[in-house]
Every structure is written in C-alpha cells, then in structure tokens.
Amino acid sequence: MDKAIKHYPGNSTKTDKTIANWRTEISALFGFLEFDGNKVTPGRRAVELAKKQDLVEFFKCFLYTFQYPGAHLKVQYIHEQICAGVHFKPAQYILSLLKYAEDEADGKRQYITKAEACHCIFNDLRCTRDNESFDKVWKRIVDNRNKKVEYDESGDVIRYAGDILDYMEEANLLVTHGAKNYYLNPLENAAVLKFINSQEWFAGYDSVSGSSNDAYDQINSHYDEWFKYVNRDMSETDFSTDILAYISKDEKEYESLKDSAIYDNTLERTDSLSTKEIGDMGEGMIYSHECQRIKLGDREDLIHLIKRIPTQLAVGYDIQSVELDAQKRYIEVKTTISSKPLHFTKFHMTTNEWCTAETLRNSYFVYRLMISKDEKKLFILKNPVGLYKQDLITMIPKDGAEISFSDSDDQIGSYEELLIWEN
Fold this sequence. Notes:
alpha+beta, six-stranded mixed β-sheet, 14 strands, 15% strand
C-alpha cells in the first residue's frame, strides 16, 4: 500500500514517514482493517473491493455508515465532537437537503458547492449538532447566493466537506455539471432513498460523557467495535453497481441503453436478467457484445447459442459464446467499474477458472473490461495459460492466479470496441 501511495502523482518525493502516516489514515478512514485485541485482519469492505473492483459500490457502503463522531478520527477529535454534541451523517444530510430543495422547486434540479457544504453545513453546529430542518438550511444557502456571499475556499478549510462530496460523486449519488456544482443523480434514486431513510447509527459514543476524567478511555474502548460496525455484512442493502446507470449521462440515455443493449426481447434469457445482475460484473454488456459480434458476422442463426452461465454452476467461465464457424468460445469476464483505471492490466482468476482455462486452451478467453462514465475499455486475452507458458504474461499463485499483462504487446491480446446489440 505504501508503494501504491508513493506512485500517486505528486507523492514521489514524500518521506517514508509521511507515506506511512497516510497509509494509516487511509486504512482508518475507509475501515480497511478490522481489530480484535492484538489481531488485525483485512476488513470486509477491503476484501469486497479487492474481489469486485467496484469502487462505486465501495463508496456507497463507506458513505452509508460514515458519521461524526467515528473512530476514523484521532481520540482527541472524537472527544471534541462529543463535547460539542455532534451527531452527524454527512452523506445522508446532504442528500436529504438536495431532495428537499428539488421537491420545493417542483422537481427542478438543485445543486450545492463544496464551499456551501463546508460553511453552511459541516462548520455549523445547527446542522451537525441540532439536525436543523432542511428548509432553514436551504434558505440560508439561497440567501447567501443572492447576497453574493464569498466563502473562504482555501484547500484546508473546505477539504473535509469537499472530500465527502467527491466520494459521493465516486459513489454515483451525485453528479457534477459546469463549475463543480453537485446535483442529485436521478438514475440513483433507489440508493438515494436508502440513504435518506436510513436509521443506521453507531451508538458507541452516545453514552460517553465528554467532561468525565476517563472520557478518552471510554472512547478507546469502542475502537474495535467501530471497525466491526463499518465492516458488517451489508448484502441486504445491496449497493452493487448498475453499470448502465453508471455510464449513462441522463435518464434518456439510460432508457436507450437499457432497451437496445441488454433488454431486447429477442435475446435469450433477457426477461430474467435483472439490472443488478448485469451491474455486478459487466457480464451483461459482454453478452450484448457477443450477440452483436455474431450478428455483424452474418451468423444471427448462432445467437441463440450464446448463454450466460449461472455462477452457482462453477464451470470456470461466465459466458458460453461461439465463433463464426460455430465452434465454442468460453469467456471469463473481469470487470473494473471506476472513474479511475486502477490496475487495468491486472486481474485475479480463481483456481477453478485457471484449471478450466488450462483444459479449454485456445477456446478460453478473458475479457478485461473497464467501465467509467467517460469510456469503456475492452481488452481480450486468448488462452491465458498458454500465454503464461510462453512467458508473455505474469502469473503469481495466490488463492488461484494473480495475472499481470502488458496491453501494448499484440502477442498477448488486443483492444476491441465494446459492441452494443442493435435490432
């Protein structure tokens, strides 16, 4: 992790101590670790992110539980917040405020800036302590706009509020237009309502008396409990990413993609495909890609042979497709859903997938897919075991196989345009 932080732009000259401090702060902020006395293990959120590479889902889960006070802060800052009576969930409050503003404006979209979030919400105890009603807060923001109030927007001042807004954008809960104005994302209405209606709260600090002599000890006693709370099982909440909602710029484009790309009635099984199923790993888009590839090859008679394979069958691949000569093509889809490329040239294969690839050889393909709002990258590798035996890719055995490859070597594979099914 130190190496990854060091490689981030601007960090190469930072001291090892600074990098180590940042690593500790990042791990605490996002709950990457769980603590049980002297035992430290990877947190559930870290494991999910490593397996799925779905940053959108990760940030939703993170924001859903993020609150002040919380053990992502140092004990003295937690103590200050307890003494001040702070009881605040930033993402929930901001989403509720914008939803109120839009309802009051008869559905017209409303926005908030980082400076407004900082000075009118985060730094105002009427919000963070008293949970002031949204009509008063929104009136204050609008009045300040009308008065052309100038806020202190220096980095350190608005950083905390600004970071939360950026995380909410990463979670696809907010979208930005123009000069970094943050709006509700209408394509994420279900997730937004989950946040707004949530009763979740870590109550560990509620009984701590800020004035007591042993307040620090009381706060520290809840440390392990906090990290278990943020890493609890959230499968019932289900924040898995709807890829179509993530890449669509608006509701019109979303409906167009949903109708033309995935849900066309002529495609086998589409009546049973849910948006969440498609969103999890990008298999739906590759299914659509394969159907269109065969259609463009003038072999529509073979489209019915393209099938998505239920995960529970554990056959070692996600999609059974075909070549234009009707030979079978077996596809394992590896998807990253992110506004950042992350490690596009790396992916993990399970032991079962690797063994299946070894058996099927030239009939086995890995489709490496990266989806963001701005682009869709698809890189196709054929016969990964064969590539490894030729020393063209790197494989490290680790609960299966950790694969690294160069996307500039045409012996390994090639980029292809992600095709969309068209009638």
